[in-house]
Structures are given as C-alpha cells and as structure tokens.
Amino acid sequence: MEAESEPYVRLATMRQLHQAVADLNTARSLADTLQTVADGIVTGLGYELGCVNLVRPDGDLVIAAFAGNAAAEALITGRVGSRASWERRLAMGESWDQLRFIPHTEGWVLLDDDVPQWHTEGPEPRFEDEWHPLDRLYAPMYASGGGRDLLGVISVDRPRNGRRPGAWGREALQMYASQAAIAISNARLRANMQRALVRLEREQQALRASEESFRQAFEYAPSGMAIAEMGGDQQGRLLRTNDALCRLLGRPASVMRRYSFADLVHPEDIGTLLRTSAEGGRAELRLSRRDGTYLWVSLRNSVVADTADGPRFLLTHVEDIEERKRHELNLAHRASHDALTGLPNSAELKSRIGARLCERPDSPAATAIEALDAAYGDVESSLTHSYQADGYEGEAVPAGGLYDHHVHALAPDAEHDDGTKGLAVLFCDLDGFKSINDRFGHHTGDAVLIEVARRLSTCVRDGDTVARLGGDEFVVLADGLGAADAADLAVRLRNAIIPPIRVDGRAVRVGASFGIGWAECGMSVEEVLRSADQRMYVEKRSRSKVHRRAG
C-alpha cells in the first residue's frame, strides 16, 4: 500500500510547490514578495519556521522577512549578520546540491557569531534522520543571468514531520529558492520600472531625464523587455526589444520589429495570449525561437499611458521559465509513471479507467430543469466526466441530463457476438519470472520487465494504454473491441512475449497468462481490475504447466 501511495505523495508535493510559486507572483511590492517567500516556506513546503535573509548594498545580510513564530519575528526581523559569517556558514556542513545542511554536531561553533538566530533546546535525536533543534538548513538565492551573485539566503527550521528532508523535499526547497530569487529580482525590477514610468508623466525637462533612466533600465534589464504599439492597424507590433529578449529568442532587434507576440506564440497558446488583459495581464506560454524551437516564458504587461492622449504603448516583461516547466513536467511524469519501464503506473491506470466510468446507465433520468442546470453549468446539480489517454483527450461535459454526451462503457456478450464494442481490460501476469529473478538476479529480472514492456507497447494501437501494475503484472486498456477482438489481442500479446529475451549474452524466456475483463459503467475501478485478475488466474490454472514453463 505504501508503494501505491508514493505517486500521490509526489503529486501532493508538486501541487504544494506549484501553489507556493504561484503565490510569489501575486505580490505587488518588494516587501510583499519577501513576506510571501517566507510564508510559502511554512504553508507550502512543510516547515514550521522560514526566514529570508537579503543581501544589502554593503554586502551584509539583513533578516527581511520571517514566518512561523510571531515572537521570533518581532525579535530578529531587521537584524543584520555580516557577509563573512554567512560565507562561513555556506562553506560548512554537508552540500545537498545547492543547499547547505549543518548538523547540530557541527553547528555549535556558530552559536556565538553575529548572525541573528532563533532556536530552542531539545533532546538528542532518537534516530538517524530526526531533526534536531540546532540543525540548520540553508538555501542560497542567486541573481538571474547565470552568475553566482548572492541575492540572499533562505533558512528553514523544524520540518513538520520531524525528519530531515528527503530527496523530494530537498528538490522542492531548491526549486522554491530559485523561483524566489526570480520573484525578488522581478519585484525590484518592477519597482524600478514603476518609478521610471512615473517620471515619464512629468514636465518636458523631467521627461527627458526619465526617458534616459527608463532606457537604461530597459536595455540592461537581465530579463527580456519589449515595447509594443497599442491601437491602430499596427496593434501589438513590437516597437522595441532589449538585448536580453533578442538573445532569448535568437533574433536581432531589427528582425523583432517585424513581428508581434501573436506572430511568435505557439499555435496552441494563441488563446492564452488573447485572453491576457492589457493592463496587469499575465500569461505563461511558448514563443518561437529562430531555430524553430519553442521556449516557455512568462509575460507580464503594463500600459505606459500619456496623461493627455491615453494609452500609448504596452510594456511587456518576458521571463524565461523553461527550466521550471521542465521540472514540473518531469515531476508530473515521475509521479504517474513506473520508474523502471516508463509505463503508466497503477495510480495513472486507475485514473484512466475511472475517467471512462460513470454511475449505472439505468439510474433515474434527470428532470427537464436539472437537465437545463447541467447544460448551463450548475455545479451542484451536474456531474462532469473527462477522459484522457496517451493519444487523445476529451473535454469535460455535463452528465446525467438532456445534453449528456457521455458514451456508456458496456461489456460485450462473450457467447453471442452482437456487435457491442467495449473497453477491454487485459490483465497480464508473467509465467516463470520469479525463477528468473531467483536464478539470475534482479538485474536480469529488471531487463526482462523492460523488454516485456517494450514488446507490449509495440503491439497496441495509438490511444491504447499499457501500464505496469506492479511486480510482474501488466494491464492493457484497449477501447472499441468486441469479445473476439480482445481474445485475438491477448493471443498477439502472448506471442510477442514468448520469444527468448537476451540479457548479458544469456537467453531467457517467460510466458504470460492473460485475463480479459471489461470496464462497464456502474462498476468501480477496483471491481474492473479484480474481474480481469480473477479471469487471469482461471486462465492460468486451465493451462498446462508445459505451456507455462519459462526460464
């Protein structure tokens, strides 16, 4: 059960991290951003205390925000620690990639330095990875642009589970520190840009000085910046782009002036761009580069207005978020797919089966009023269904009413072929796999599982699902099959598995037993899998030992 729940733990970690990062973008000022960073450590990452230490112009670090304990916040917020003391701390202890962990056995020497700190006494740890009150964990934040300029340090304490963070916790904290550094840099940049925009509205003499200040901030901003035309027949055309944006998209400024963002956006993201409001609008979408590839960016729009004539042009801040998107996709894939074979795991399999099932088709029909409520989006009286598989996906539609477009999953009659097509669930258990594991070791067993997964995947159609349920058990979902079609598919899959598999110069052989079940509306996911599993065991017992011999 613990192994089955692991994907859900990973998804929960990813959702919490995604929400904490999303909250960073809601802050409007630098002070709000710093406090949001501290709050996100407590509410999103599972620590009781979070502290943001920000580098001052003189190089020392000041405690700019604190979360988790009001008494500690009142005591140490605003206090300063020297740069030398911080550099000493970031060179001690254990390096967890970009994180720095100082166990209490080493950190006692730091009790008397000038870095403000808050801790409570506590007993010695009872087990190896238990958190001690004097343990210290730091996440350095570096300015964007690829350099190693220290922007600040996030310090955390008291994980809620009482243990030192594992690999997932460390990766989440490191990603959060990276996104916090971007948010703080952006908040500073927005503050500078806002001050420049205010100066643009002054008298002509002050206006010229402000334009120069704006030009400096625009040209030398570490993130991409663009000015686009508003109104007229050239609506959206890029009038000016800075060097950072030109480098980001691989196009010179002279070429960029021929385009608008609508010309550069990925076709699937054009709707997102159009829905983004002009003033204060924000969107995450893909822009094309000169080499034809697409890059994930975050767009933030501001309107630069003339007091007399109204809006004149649109100032757009473009931030590269490719790495964050790649991490999110990687985390999502790892949470829903088997690490060994790359196939969908049991959680993803159950999700896909559940997406095709609904309440029993013969449930009472909705009244006319309920049907209208469902059609027009009444959440309390409508039931929605969605379906997504490897090859296609459908949008959610109201179910149970006059406008119900859900196609009920039915089981074909095994004895009389009446033309009914259904969602076949083929439960596969490998014969002889345990003897291979015992005789040749887990390395050979893993190689066999990988090859079986490959062979199964090559025998199914686009849109079908091949999943690893666990151990040597696989499940194939194939929609639109009759009883005879499913039986033929089971034969093809078994014949694909039977040929010898070569591992390290040795040929091994496994067999396979298949049980064919059907996903039918009115059944639960567990009932569907149990039915296919039982039929597989019936089929396994009915076959002679000679036919199931492997090794």
Automatic annotation (TrEMBL):
<dbReference type="InterPro" id="IPR000700">
    <property type="entry name" value="PAS-assoc_C"/>
</dbReference>
<dbReference type="InterPro" id="IPR029016">
    <property type="entry name" value="GAF-like_dom_sf"/>
</dbReference>
<dbReference type="Pfam" id="PF01590">
    <property type="entry name" value="GAF"/>
</dbReference>
<feature type="domain" description="PAS">
    <location>
        <begin position="210"/>
        <end position="269"/>
    </location>
</feature>
<dbReference type="InterPro" id="IPR052155">
    <property type="entry name" value="Biofilm_reg_signaling"/>
</dbReference>
<dbReference type="Pfam" id="PF00990">
    <property type="entry name" value="GGDEF"/>
</dbReference>
<dbReference type="InterPro" id="IPR029787">
    <property type="entry name" value="Nucleotide_cyclase"/>
</dbReference>
<feature type="domain" description="GGDEF">
    <location>
        <begin position="421"/>
        <end position="551"/>
    </location>
</feature>
<dbReference type="Pfam" id="PF00989">
    <property type="entry name" value="PAS"/>
</dbReference>
<dbReference type="InterPro" id="IPR035965">
    <property type="entry name" value="PAS-like_dom_sf"/>
</dbReference>
<dbReference type="InterPro" id="IPR000014">
    <property type="entry name" value="PAS"/>
</dbReference>
<dbReference type="InterPro" id="IPR001610">
    <property type="entry name" value="PAC"/>
</dbReference>
<feature type="coiled-coil region">
    <location>
        <begin position="186"/>
        <end position="213"/>
    </location>
</feature>
<protein>
    <submittedName>
        <fullName>Diguanylate cyclase</fullName>
    </submittedName>
</protein>
<keyword id="KW-0175">Coiled coil</keyword>
<feature type="domain" description="PAC">
    <location>
        <begin position="281"/>
        <end position="333"/>
    </location>
</feature>
<dbReference type="InterPro" id="IPR000160">
    <property type="entry name" value="GGDEF_dom"/>
</dbReference>
<dbReference type="InterPro" id="IPR003018">
    <property type="entry name" value="GAF"/>
</dbReference>
<dbReference type="InterPro" id="IPR043128">
    <property type="entry name" value="Rev_trsase/Diguanyl_cyclase"/>
</dbReference>
<dbReference type="InterPro" id="IPR013767">
    <property type="entry name" value="PAS_fold"/>
</dbReference>
